[in-house]
Amino acid sequence: MSRPIDRTHEPNLRSWVESANLKDTDFPIQNLPFGVFRALGSNDSSRIGVAIGDRILDLSKCVTLGLFSELPQALQAACRASNLNPLMAMGTEATLTLRQRLSQLLRSDNRSPLAGEELLILMSDVEMLLPATIGDYTDFYASIFHATNVGKLFRPDNPLLPNYKYVPIAYHGRASSIVPSGRAIDRPQGQRKRPEDAAPSFGPSRMLDYELEVGFFVGAGNELGQPIPIDRAEEHIFGLCLVNDWSARDLQAWEYQPLGPFLAKSFATSISPWVVTLEALAPFRCPAFQRPEGDPLPLPYLTSPEDASSGGIDLKLEVWLQSARMREVGMEPFLLSRGSFPQMYWTIAQMLTHHASNGCNLRSGDLIASGTVSGPAAGSQGCLLEITQRGSQPIELPTGEVRSFLVDGDQIVLKGFCDRPGYARIGFGECRGAIGPIGNSQLTIRN
C-alpha cells in the first residue's frame, strides 16, 4: 500500500538549481511537488509545474523540448494539461515514473544541455492557481483531541459522542468556494444568536475562525457501487496539501443542529498551492495513532496491519497570525500553535475507505480534508475556538492587541514540513489568507 523509498529520496542528492540545495528550503530535489501556475498579471493558460527551490519547472516546456520523450504519450499529454486532473487519474505508477524522470533531470550531476534556465520561472513571477478542478470536497473530523476539546465547550458532561470511535465522521463541503493560498477571505454574513438574544439576527460573523487541516487529493477514482478496500486505499491518493477550513463559529452554533455545518463553512476554504505526493512522503511514514487501552478497535473493513504499522505521516504543522498593525510596523507573524499529524485518530486510508464503503464514487481531483489537527497539550490546538476557549481566554499579540477570534486585516499562515534523521527535510510551502470586510478585494497577499 505505501510507496517505496528509492534513490529519489537520497539525502545527499543535489540539484543544479542552487536554491533547491539551501538548508531551509521547502522544495529540495527530494520533494518535487506539483502545482498549477500562470505568469503574474497575465491571461495566459494555466500550466503544470514542479517546485524546485525558489523556481518552478515548467512541465509543458519539458515535453516540447523532448525531455520526456521516453515517457508514455498519455503521461506526456497529462504534463501539458491545464490542471493536475489527468495526471491524478493515471494512478500511482504514472506518478512514480514521472517523479523518477524529474529527479534525474534535475540532478546536479546529470544536467542536460536543454535543461537550462528556459525551463524555469521564479515563483515570485507567477500566480499560483488551484491545482485541480475539484468536483467534490469532503471534510472529516479525524482528531479525537479536537473533537473532545470542542465537545467540552458545548457538552461538558458528554464531550465525545458515542459513534466517534467507530465512524470516521465527515461532512460534505462546498467545492465551489475552495480558493488558492493568498486569496482574500471576505467576512461572511449569516444568522447568529447569542444566548441572551430573544431571536436571531442577520449580519457579519463576530466569531470568525481558522482551522488547521491537512488535505489529500484523490488520484485514480472508483466506479459507483465499488468500495475501496483498506489495503488498496492509498493507490487512490495522489498527494497532500495544507487546508484552512475557515469557520464562522457564531453562525455554526446557531445552524448546525440537526444537520451539521452549512453557511458557517461554505463561504471559503483555502488550500496551499503545492501538492506533495505520497511518493515524496515515503520516508516519513509512521505507525497509525495508538488508541488508548479500552478504546474499540476499528471495524474489520477499516483494519489493516500495514495501515496500522505505517498509515501515519510524520508531518509537523504550524499556525502563524499577523495582524494589520504587525504588518504596518514590519513585525513578523506570531506563532499561535504547533500540530502533529500522526496524532489523528483516523488515517488517510481509513478516511478514504470509509468514504467509499457505501459505494460512493470518488473522482480524480476530489479533495478530502482531515478536519482540525489538534493535540492534547497546550499550544497544539488547531483553531481559536479551542485556544481561546470559545473567546473566554483571549490571546495577546506582540503589539498588545488581543484576539478571541479574527478581526479584519488579520492574516493566517499555515506551514507544514517533514523531517527525519537520514533524509532531507521537505516542506509544503504556505497556505495564507487575510480577512477583509464583506466585498473586500484589497487584501490579497501573494505567496
Mean pLDDT: 94
**What is the oligomer described by this structure?**
single chain
- Estimated structural class: alpha+beta
**What's the number of helices?**
11
Q: Tell me the helix content.
A: 10-25%
Rg is 22 Å
> What is the CA–CA distance across the termini?
34 Å
| Beta-strand percentage range | 15-25%
Largest sheet: 8 strands, mixed
For the secondary structure, the number of strands is: 26
**Contiguous uncertain segments of 5+ residues:** 441-447
Q: How does the overall form come out from the CA principal axes?
A: globular
How do you describe this structure in short?
The chain has 447 residues and is α+β, with helices and mostly antiparallel strands. The protein has helices at 59-64, 73-79, 85-89, 92-106, 144-154, 249-255, 263-266, 305-310, 324-328, 348-356, 384-387; strands at residues 34-39, 47-52, 55-58, 120-122, 126-129, 137-140, 170-172, 178-180, 185-186, 189-192, 201-204, 208-209, 212-218, 237-244, 247-248, 269-271, 276-277, 285-286, 312-313, 316-322, 334-340, 367-369, 395-396, 402-403, 411-418, 426-436. It has eleven helices and 26 strands.
How would you describe this structure to a colleague?
The chain is α+β, with helices and mostly antiparallel strands and 447 residues long. It is 18% helix and 25% strand. It is built from eleven helices and 26 strands. The strands form seven sheets. Strands 6, 7, 8, 13, 14, 16, 17 and 22 form an eight-stranded mixed beta sheet that branches. Strands 4-3-2-1-5 form a five-stranded antiparallel beta sheet. The two termini are 34 Å apart. The relative contact order is 0.18. The C terminus is likely disordered.
